[in-house]
Amino acid sequence: MIRILSSLLVLLIFVCALNAQVYQQVPNAGNINWQDQIIRATGIGAPNPKMPLAAQRAGALEAAKRIALRNLLETVKGMSITSETTVRNAMMENDVITTSVSGIVRNFRVVDTRYMSSGDVEVDVEVPISGVLADALLPMMGQPMQVGQGFPVDPSGYSLPQNVVFTGLIIDARGVGARPAMAPKILDESGNEVYGTGYVSREYAVQIGVVGYEKDINRAKTNERVTDNPLVVKATKASGTNKSDIVISNNDAQNVIGAAKNLNFMENCKVMVILD
């Protein structure tokens, strides 16, 4: 009984940990952990009865890796780059991206191997979103915009205390149906871009992502990405085909621009989004 209760407790902790993560499941493929920026897939290989018995396990392992690679690539293709473009779209339109992504995925890391009593082998593999994959997929960026460029700052709309120094930005997008993407935008009610790839250093975007994702706002406030005093604003709706762009009120947009006017937290991608 004690063993059963212990097993149930471990399972409960595991489920709670999964629910605390920002996951995207790609049907019949794998999953994307947007919070930790990891893409993972599983492959299952069966032994070939026509092979010598000693070689069957090794053959099943290689078959599992091939299937895991296929599932991993399908998972990457299902990922949104922007609110209008998926990796699949980008690969269809650009042969260079197709070659780059295929090569990156082939360099997957095996994180777990399970040998079944039936002779089957299961393999879990993963690739990080940040780094070389992000470098291949993120839109090319020039110099980051100066804060306020392309967005009229109205001093009368700036309602935050002028002497407060904010170290980052948290957008609470719970309840609006927002979905994760590599390069989302924060927009005002008129569709003006408050934050996006035009505001960031590409080096930071490749290393840590344009935004970070979380489910728990209190945990986000203590995340090193935005500490020690992030500005928190509420999203009003999600926008775009993939529902990855996030709209905030005009007043909050003015506050964001005003808070960032003399700081570099937006350029350094110190922005987090809270999702359901």
Key terms for this structure?
seven-stranded mixed beta sheet; five-stranded antiparallel beta sheet; 33% helix; elongated; 2 domains; 276 residues; alpha/beta
How would you sum up this structure in a few lines?
This protein has 276 residues and is an alpha/beta fold.
Give your account of this protein's structure:
The structure is a single chain. A seven-stranded mixed beta sheet has the order 8-7-11-10-6-12-9. The protein has a five-stranded antiparallel beta sheet with strand order 1-2-3-5-4. It is of the alpha/beta class and 276 residues long. The protein folds into two domains: 24-137, no CATH class; 155-274, no CATH class. Helices cover 33% and strands 22% of the residues. Mean pLDDT is 88; it is low at 10-18. The chain contains eight helices and twelve strands.
Main pleated-sheet profile:
7 strands, mixed
Structural class: alpha/beta
Distance between the amino and carboxyl termini: 36 Å
Helix share bin:
25-40%
Give the CA-based shape: elongated
- Total count of helical runs of at least 4 residues: 8
Query: Unreliable segments (pLDDT under 50, ≥5 consecutive)?
Result: 10-18
Rg calculated over all Cα atoms: 22 Å
Q: Strand order across the biggest sheet? A: 8-7-11-10-6-12-9
Strand content: 15-25%
Count of domain modules: 2
**What is the helix/strand order?**
HEEEHHHEEHEEEHEHEEHE
> On the 0-100 scale, what is the average pLDDT?
88
